[in-house]
Amino acid sequence: MTKQALVDWAKSKGWTVGQNNHLYKANKRLKLNERYVRLESRAGGGWMGLKYGEYRKLTISPEGKLSGLQEIK
Hints:
Number of strands: 8
Shape: globular
């Protein structure tokens, strides 16, 4: 998957582009970097990382769900 493919998928699922071209939906954020994405949740006054993955390892399931993200330990 490419970064642009991820952005297109996220927009189709109701995510919006916000500050620094990151994607936002409710209290979640997809933080986009050059080679990977990180799923974060708002925690207190900041953001807490939940999952991450390289674009090349991400896929969209037949049900339209993003897969390939790994838990942040």
